[in-house]
């Protein structure tokens, strides 16, 4: 019989760290419902659509800023210390939100929570990758995404439950209090986690690294390989200060736009940004508002419908993670994107034609079903393929910098969506859906033109495709040059570009 207590320590540590993903999801699932609660309006007044957008999106400002330097902090002070510190900062921010009587304090709390979220969330997968054996790395990293979805689901249903508390601000304070308690408990748990052995090796602490590797329960072959092939960054970060690490980070960022890497960097930033412009966080943050617009007028009904959305996304995340490699990245993005586009354009067209009525007709149910189809499709396509693809297409020497830049593009686009969605909804019943639909269609067209399939290919083969093969020709418009096998840069003419696309 399976006994979780007998699991290797690296499994237990990975599960503990995945709670960080749960906190991220809990916040995402809670903020939309609680900002439309009657008790929230009684405390802070009726929010305009612009202020509503500011309140929801303010956490992303802190997250975007701290996320840029989370890796530097982690390199200097360690993965577990950085995750712990981020969780504490998030807990402080959530506490300020929970105890707020003025809107300024509430927004300040969200910015502080965002700073903490950016610090710990960016290091979760890094830590798991560095403690897990190769055979378990993928499944253990996918636990984090699963916990994100679980957090979103519980965030909705906790809010659904507390919304029944009438005539009391506890209805919106309790979800925030839960976030604070979970984050502080998470910080305490991280205090006892083993440090990353690869970080210890990079800091020149080999005896501690060996002891940690043995405690984690890694096979002797993994241990020997790690000791024989230490991190290439070891010599550069042993004595590095935080300031010098940040300076090095900016130097690395400049490298991502070098001739051999700029195509991959541009594609990764484009894809991660348009992952958000598909409208997923508009749906997650403002689901109660969307369902109320579609005709579910009561607070409880809209919250319940939002929770069902999260449940469906949770249910499809597990099989989607398992079969992602079977579907391929390119087809997943293109087919998934077309379905997402269709859902948004159908909803927008129904509102534009004034076919949706709150108390009668089938159009409102078409809107609700389309939102569910959108959520399912996103979970099995964009949610998985874009994140993997944006990292695996990068050259080895720029992978960390390019991936970090792409994540920043994602957070920036996320902020734009979170801020503008309620404003667009207030001014037009259909504009926001057309924006998401046509943005996704544009992304699909670009990906169909320049996105090569990476399924089953080595990282080296992917790199060659971008610099030597047909992919380089299709990207010639970025600079009109490609790197040939002889190491020289070659100019590409219009006829050669045309031949590469037919």
From TrEMBL:
Its main location: membrane. GO terms for cellular component: membrane. It is found in: Membrane. The chain crosses the membrane at residues 12-31, 51-69, 76-95, 107-128, 140-160, 172-193, 267-291, 303-324, 331-353, 365-389, 432-451. One of its GO terms (molecular function) is carbohydrate:proton symporter activity. It is a multi-pass membrane protein. It comes from the Eukaryota. Residues 13-455 form the Major facilitator superfamily (MFS) profile domain. Signal peptide: none annotated. The keyword Zinc-finger does not apply. Keywords: Membrane, Transmembrane, Transmembrane helix, Transport. Belongs to the major facilitator superfamily. Sugar transporter (TC 2.A.1.1) family. PANTHER family: PLASTIDIC GLUCOSE TRANSPORTER 4. This is Major facilitator superfamily (MFS) profile domain-containing protein.
């Amino acid at each position: 019989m399976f006994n979780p207590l007998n699991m290797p320590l690296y499994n237990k540590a990975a599960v503990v760290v995945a709670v960080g993903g749960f906190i991220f999801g809990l916040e995402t699932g809670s903020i939309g419902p609680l900002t439309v609660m009657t008790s929230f309006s009684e405390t802070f007044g009726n929010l305009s659509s612009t202020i509503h957008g500011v309140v929801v999106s303010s956490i992303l400002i802190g997250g975007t800023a701290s996320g840029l330097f989370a890796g530097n902090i982690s390199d200097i002070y360690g993965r577990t210390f950085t995750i712990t510190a981020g969780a504490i900062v998030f807990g402080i921010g959530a506490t300020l939100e929970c105890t707020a009587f003025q809107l300024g304090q509430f927004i300040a709390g969200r910015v502080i929570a965002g700073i903490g979220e950016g610090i710990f969330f960016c290091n979760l997968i890094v830590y798991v990758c560095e403690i897990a054996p190769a055979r378990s790395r993928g499944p253990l990293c996918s636990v984090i995404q699963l916990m994100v979805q679980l957090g979103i689901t519980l965030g909705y249903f906790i809010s659904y439950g507390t919304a029944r508390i009438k005539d009391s601000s506890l209805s919106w304070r309790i979800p925030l209090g839960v976030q604070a308690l979970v984050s502080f408990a998470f910080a305490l748990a991280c205090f006892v986690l083993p440090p990353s052995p690869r970080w210890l090796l990079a800091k020149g602490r080999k005896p501690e690294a060996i002891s940690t590797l043995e405690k984690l329960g890694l096979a002797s072959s993994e241990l020997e390989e790690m000791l024989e092939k230490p991190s290439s960054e070891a010599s550069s970060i042993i004595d590095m200060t935080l300031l010098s690490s940040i300076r090095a980070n900016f130097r690395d960022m400049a490298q991502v736009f070098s001739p051999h890497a700029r195509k991959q960097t541009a594609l990764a930033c484009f894809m991660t940004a348009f992952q958000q412009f598909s409208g997923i966080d508009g749906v997650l943050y403002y689901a109660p508002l969307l369902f109320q617009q579609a005709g579910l007028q009561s607070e409880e009904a809209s919250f319940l419908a939002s929770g069902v959305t999260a449940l469906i996304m949770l249910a499809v995340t597990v099989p989607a993670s398992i079969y992602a490699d079977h579907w391929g990245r390119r087809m997943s993005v293109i087919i998934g994107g077309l379905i997402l586009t269709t859902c948004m354009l159908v909803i927008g067209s129904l509102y534009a034609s004034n076919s949706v009525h709150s108390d009668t007709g089938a159009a409102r149910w078409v809107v609700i079903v389309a939102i569910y189809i959108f959520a399912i499709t996103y979970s099995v396509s964009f949610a998985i393929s874009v994140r993997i693809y944006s990292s695996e297409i990068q050259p080895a020497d720029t992978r960390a910098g390019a991936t970090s830049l792409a994540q920043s593009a994602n957070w920036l686009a996320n902020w734009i969506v979170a801020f503008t969605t309620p404003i667009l909804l207030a001014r037009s019943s259909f504009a926001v859906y057309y924006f998401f639909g046509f943005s996704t269609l544009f992304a699909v067209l670009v990906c169909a033109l320049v996105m090569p399939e990476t399924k089953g290919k080595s990282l080296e083969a992917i790199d060659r495709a971008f610099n030597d093969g047909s992919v380089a020709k299709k990207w010639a418009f970025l600079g009109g040059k490609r790197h040939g096998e002889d190491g020289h840069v070659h100019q590409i003419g219009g006829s050669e570009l045309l031949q590469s696309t037919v």
